[in-house]
Design goal:
The complex is a heterodimer of chains A (about 260) and B (about 675). Chain A is built from eight helices and six strands, in the order E-H-E-E-H-E-H-E-H-H-H-E-H-H. Chain A is of the alpha/beta class and about 260 residues long. Chain A has a single domain (about 1-255), classed as P-loop containing nucleotide triphosphate hydrolases (Rossmann fold, 3-Layer(aba) Sandwich). In chain A, helix 3 (about 90-100) links the parallel strand 4 and strand 5. Chain B is an alpha+beta fold and about 675 residues long. Chain B is built from 24 helices and 18 strands. Residues about 1-210 and about 640-665 of chain B have low confidence and may be disordered. Chain A: GO terms for molecular function: GTP binding; GTPase activity. Chain A: This is Ras-related protein Rab-20.
Chain lengths: ~260, ~675
């Protein structure tokens, strides 16, 4: 379309996926606004254009709700990076990544990079102490997963009282690394050619800002080669939905 | 509502004494000059006693008079569903699956009233209008909501001793209706704490609602939970909880089980439970496909109004999932937990219910427009008309939950228009999803009145971050059109920048009632009706800022309650009225419906009837003078075909010169 020439052209597309209430919107908000605030559940997906140095990076903050599942593949089309987000206090949220969200990334670029991010790390940071009793977990599951609006976990412990403010960490870094390996296998990518899991598995806290900037900067650094390549190739591939499949097949052979 | 408040009980007497609801055949008497009882006040009558019809629970005055009857008198309204399928439509509650929506139905109803002006107590001056004569059975509303069953079928008065008997359920089994009544009374006593709540005024209860977000954690056995003014529950036919306004659904699963038991018990007798009345509460049931919606309200609203609200709740759920997919889900799995799909949407439903309580546009089924110089509105519309892309069907500009302008695709929807109720859902969605306002949102949304089974894709973006008051909403039918639609937004942004339109919009805000220049007038709501030759116009209303003494939340609610009460009397299905002059405790209100408009006014308490009438004449003149600014007269259209023609626009301009019926009475 001719009008598109006027649009500020995004150089690359990053998509944040994950179950609802893991804190996707909060993560992005922490990174862009350097603030943590209560958010409401995202509807559909929200599109942001982030100026990163000389580059325009488009970021899709998607809704985690099953209701909007059908849109997922549209958001992911032509993506250069996918941030798979889970909640470290919720094992189910990690499982969902594999069950529900991984298949959405089929439309992403072949050289897409995948980051596994465990959010709400502030809830478990000093989790070396004794585990929270079983019923505490149950409460976290039901309150946090099903009823809470998306939030970085600021008030997730509200029902539990102040005593056991720390939640049991349900997902460890090792689980995330294992998932990363499975993601690569699913994608048919060569583990040796791809960035090592250690550099793409993060634990973050949108509430405190812990690791959030590191996460986004690392990912942007990693997509830089594909930005540069795209600029060299001239035509953008991420913007145009109709055309994006063509460059994808061109680049099929190479992993950045 | 009013019987709870000693003060307003008095005012009710005053009203009955001095000037009661008057039906005025509006076609013959355009101004309420013939208001009754100036010289000859009718005797204080107890309408319930003199009413020849057994319609106790319906007549609001009747309820008030029954205030001293023990609370255990419950009434069940039920009716044969299969024999009278059209009754529901008559009552202003159209089926969602039909194309029409609430607003058009309501208008039809009013027009019907106008065409039969002599039905209700025609001798305006002499008879106490509260006493409805036996001929209320208007041809237009032969049955209405099922309140006026002449033979009292499905209408049970429960005797107090039976109700207090815990074994009544067993006793009543041979008589199904009494069994149900006993069940209801018992469950209501248990769930609502009727016995303990006594006479606390409902307005006081609204004073301290828990902060938003805390609702889900509420203790559903506590008094505070019971004291909420209005509960709304949504459950599936299998009795699975889907939504509760207060408290967590899990904790309420047994309560919802009881509700479902009631619904299915009455259904098993080929009947449909519609409502239950108690002294304090009105319980309204609505079945919509596989969903059951229940409203438990102590707000004093009429069943009809509560039903409209439930329909909004249902429509909001449909807007997220579509009716077809809800039906499909429950077809394959009867006991599906719909919360799986709705999870995260509670805030949207919460927001809708708050808006229903606080925003009169829902009551009037009309859209509130930002007052704007018509030249500015036109130029904004032209900007929207120019920024188009294939499959774009609606471009809507919104400021602070009010409409600036709406432009629609011409050919695709020749016969359709966006209904106010669909717009309300969109406004609510925007309000409830605005937390992260810098981004551009792309989301599927179904507009139930337009088409309950399909999605539009909505592009939502604020044009003035970080203030986030002016919002652009573009609706496309193409799921993949985000980038094309986003480009339209950039064009609109540029064009608005060039015209400095945002600053102009920022200057436009609601007006003060003082601009009308009538000293006693405190507030009003004016809703013009469509006229036949322009029936596709969006239903709108205008209303000034609520100023002192209605600047506090509490007073605002009180005024809205008064308006709601007038609205329910005017639109009462059994005894519709045209004109009500209501002397309340702290203000005097006048509501008036004609074939051209619906008007609610609020005056200072000491206004005289003559001066109120004078004021309304002035007000109508003022609105007539300002209507270009207050309303969107002709929503412009565009064509997203390659060569957009300006013909529709020209046609609209031609129309502009003709009188569209606004206030042609004067």
């Amino acid at each position: 379309m001719p009008e598109r020439a006027k649009m500020r052209k995004p150089d690359v597309k990053v998509v944040i996926l994950g179950d609802m209430n893991v804190g996707k919107t909060s993560l992005l908000h922490r990174y862009t606004e350097k603030k943590f605030k209560d958010t409401v559940s995202t509807v559909g997906g929200a599109f942001f254009l982030k100026q990163w140095g000389p580059y325009n990076i488009s970021i899709w903050d998607t809704a985690g709700r099953e209701q909007f599942h059908g849109l997922g593949s549209m958001y992911c089309r032509g993506a250069s990076a996918v941030i798979l987000t889970y909640d470290v206090t919720n094992w189910q949220s990690l499982t969902e990544l594999e069950d529900r969200f991984l298949s959405l990334t089929d439309t992403a670029n072949a050289d897409c990079i995948y980051a596994i991010v465990g959010n709400k790390a502030d809830l478990t940071e000093s989790s070396a102490q004794g585990p929270v009793p079983e019923d505490g977990q149950g409460e976290q599951e039901s309150v946090g997963t099903e009823l809470r609006p998306t939030g970085g976990g600021s008030s997730s412990g509200g029902g539990g009282g102040g005593g056991d403010a720390l939640h049991q960490k349900q997902v460890n870094q090792d689980d995330a690394l294992a998932l990363y390996a499975r993601v690569l296998r699913y994608k048919g990518l060569d583990g040796m050619a791809c960035p090592p899991g250690e550099s793409l598995c993060f634990e973050t806290s949108a509430k405190t800002g812990y690791n959030v900037d590191v996460l986004f900067e690392t990912i942007f650094d990693m997509v830089l080669p594909s930005i540069l390549k795209k600029r060299r190739e001239g035509e953008p591939s991420t913007v145009d939905l109709e055309d994006c499949r063509v460059p994808k097949s061109i680049k099929g052979g190479c992993c950045a | 509502m009013e019987q709870d408040n000693p003060g307003s009980a008095n005012s009710e007497d005053v009203r009955t004494n001095e000037a009661s609801p008057v039906t005025c055949p509006a076609d013959t008497d355009p101004l309420p000059v013939t208001c009754p009882a100036d010289t000859d006040p009718p005797p204080v009558t107890c309408p319930a006693d003199t009413d020849p019809l057994p319609s106790g629970p319906q007549s609001s005055s009747g309820c008030e008079e029954q205030g001293d009857v023990p609370l255990l008198e419950n009434h069940i309204q039920s009716e044969e569903t299969q024999s009278r399928p059209e009754d529901e439509l008559e009552a202003g509650c159209p089926d969602v699956s039909t194309v029409t929506d609430c607003s058009t139905q309501r208008e039809d109803e009013i027009l019907e009233q106008d065409s039969a002006p002599d039905d209700v107590s025609g001798e305006t001056g002499q008879s106490a209008p509260d006493v409805v004569s036996g001929e209320t059975g208007q041809p237009a509303n032969p049955d209405g909501e099922g309140h006026t069953h002449p033979d009292g079928e499905g209408h049970t008065h429960l005797l107090p001793e039976r109700n207090s008997d815990s074994a009544s359920a067993e006793d009543g089994r041979d008589d199904s209706e009494e069994f149900v009544a006993a069940m209801l009374a018992r469950s209501k006593l248990e769930e609502q704490g009727l016995g303990t709540k006594g006479s606390s005024p409902p307005l006081a209860e609204t004073g301290g609602p828990p902060p938003p977000g805390a609702h889900r954690d509420e203790d559903v056995t506590g008094d505070a939970w019971r004291a909420h003014r209005k509960h709304v529950f949504v459950l599936s036919e299998a009795g699975k909880p889907i939504y509760s306004r207060y408290g967590s659904e899990e904790a309420l699963s047994s309560t919802m089980g009881v509700m479902m038991a009631l619904v299915s018990f009455v259904q098993s007798g080929d009947n449909n439970i519609r409502s239950v009345y108690s002294d304090q509460h009105t319980v309204v049931f609505m079945t919509q496909g596989p969903l059951v919606l229940v409203s438990v309200s102590s707000s004093g609203q009429s069943e009809q109004q509560l039903r409209v609200e439930l329909r909004y709740v249902h429509n909001q759920i449909v807007s997220m999932l579509t009716e077809a997919s809800i039906a499909r889900i429950f077809q394959t799995k009867k006991n599906y937990d719909l919360r799986r799909l709705l999870a995260g949407s509670e805030k949207i439903l919460d927001g809708l219910l708050d808006l229903l309580d606080s925003d009169p546009s829902f009551l009037l089924s009309a859209v509130h427009c930002v007052p704007l110089a018509s030249s500015l509105r036109d130029s904004l519309s032209q900007i929207l008309q120019k920024a188009i892309t294939p499959n774009l069907v609606f471009s809507i500009l919104i400021a602070r939950q009010q409409l600036i302008t709406i432009v629609q695709e011409k050919t695709v929807i020749e016969d359709a228009r966006l209904e106010p109720s669909d717009l309300h859902l969109l406004f609510n969605l925007i309000g409830a999803s605005s937390a992260f306002q810098a981004g551009e949102i792309w989301t599927p949304i179904c507009l139930p009145c337009f088409n309950p089974d399909c999605y539009f894709y909505a592009y939502i973006s604020y044009l003035d971050p970080p203030e986030c008051t002016v919002c652009l909403l573009l609706l496309s039918t193409d799921k993949e059109a985000f980038y094309a639609v986003a480009e339209c937004k950039r064009k609109i942004e540029e064009a608005m920048m060039a015209q400095n339109a945002l600053a102009a919009i920022a200057k436009a805000h609601s007006y003060s009632v003082s601009q009308v220049g009538v000293s006693d007038l405190r507030h009003f709501m004016y809703k013009p009706f469509d006229v036949p030759d322009n029936h596709r116009q969006l239903t709108q209303f205008t209303s000034p800022e609520m100023e002192s003494p209605y600047s506090s939340e509490e007073e605002r609610t009180r005024l809205l309650d008064l308006y709601r009460d007038l609205h329910s009397r005017i639109h009462s299905s059994s005894r519709p009225l045209k004109l009500i002059y209501h002397v309340a405790e702290r203000e005097t209100l006048l509501a008036w419906v004609t074939s051209k408009f619906e008007l609610y006014t609020c005056f200072s308490p000491l206004v005289t009837k003559a001066s109120a009438i004078n004021a309304i004449t002035k007000l109508l003149r003022w609105i007539k003078k300002e209507e270009e600014r207050l309303f969107i007269r002709y929503p412009p259209k565009y064509s997203t075909t390659p060569n957009p023609s300006r013909s529709s626009r020209k046609a609209a301009e031609q129309h502009d010169s003709t009188d569209n019926g606004f206030l042609s009475l004067l």
